[in-house]
Amino acid sequence: MDLIRVFIYGSLLPGHSNHHVVANFVHDYSPGQIAGRLVDFGPYPAAIRDSVAKECNSIIRGQWITVDRAGLASMDVLEDFHGIDEYNDYDRIWVQDIQNAEVSGWVYVWDTNRGCPAIPEAYWPDFFARKSG
To answer: Which of 17, 27, 92, 133 has its CA 20 to 30 A from that of 69?
Structure first.
């Protein structure tokens, strides 16, 4: 079975609204960090890897999960990802963990902030709890 590593940072995390999309496909979880920044799109965040994120050395904390092809396909549907050369809501790009160069995988990102406000925290659940509380 082919296992695929994906970095999750928002509503797909355990205990959040879309975790059910991947829960039955996850073979393991491990903490991680990637370069980028988060913006607030309401009930979930979007990751952006742009010049602002680079200039500020911004990081996003989340989890690396390993899933099979069905798990990746399930996330593709949620993220409205249709393929590399297609129009997508979220693009799926290959990234490397900034603390462990041996860990890399897919992550879903936007190419711009689309007018959404920046999230100051590196870990979306912290921001979401503060926002919701």
So the answer is: 17
Q: How far apart are CA 15 and CA 60, in angstroms?
A: 18
Token pair 């994120």 in the structure block, residue: 53
| Cα-based torsion angle of the residue sequence 7, 47, 127, 21 in order, rounded to the nearest 10 degrees | -50
State the pTM of this model: 0.95
Angle at 64 between CA 23 and CA 102, to 5 degrees: 150
Domain hosting 53: range is 4-123
Q: Please indicate, yes or no, if residue 55 is contained in any of the structural domains.
A: yes
Could you give the number of structural domains in the chain?
Answer: 1
pLDDT per residue as tens digits for the range 13-49:
999 999 999 999 999 999 999 999 999 998 899 999 9
